[in-house]
Amino acid sequence: QVQLVESGGGSVQAGGSLRLSCATSGNTRDINLMGWFRQAPGKDREGIATFYATTGKSYYADSVKGRFTVSLDNSQKTLFLQMNSLEPADSSMYYCAAAERATTMTARKTLSANLFRNWGQGIRVTVSS
């Protein structure tokens, strides 16, 4: 059993920054891939950033590349998402996810929500113009 809890969301004006946190607990031994996703009303769930714990490799969707940064604090077992230069289009529910024993794949494929079986409850981010 793996538990994921997001925090750090809220409201911010366009151009501002937020940092999301995803605290993990339970049996995390087999988790080797984690990611951040977002889903707005009427939209598909979108993978925005992933992180391979075994290699330290991170991947980003084109929509957030250069603005968002994912990192992992191993001692705290917490995944972070630093979001800078936020835009109204970034407004969404954001979800943390973890995959166990994920195989090697292309960067684009790691952004697929279907790979992940462990999910946080989601946290809202609202960016006003």
Could you name the key traits of this structure?
129 residues; mainly beta; seven-stranded mixed β-sheet; four-stranded antiparallel β-sheet
Radius of gyration: 14 Å
Total beta strand runs = 11
The percent of residues in helical segments reads: under 10%
Question: What gap, in angstroms, lies between the N and C termini?
Answer: 40 Å
Overall 3D geometry?
A: globular
Mean model confidence by pLDDT: 95
Total helices: the number is: 1
Descriptive account of the structure:
There is one protein chain. With 129 residues, the chain is mostly beta strands. The chain is built from one helix and eleven strands. Strands 2, 4, 5, 6, 9, 10 and 11 form a seven-stranded mixed beta sheet that branches. It has a four-stranded antiparallel beta sheet with strand order 1-3-8-7, with no helix packed on it. A hairpin with a 4-residue loop joins strand 7 and strand 8. The longest helix is centred in the C-terminal third of the chain and has 4 residues. The radius of gyration is 14 Å and the shape is globular.
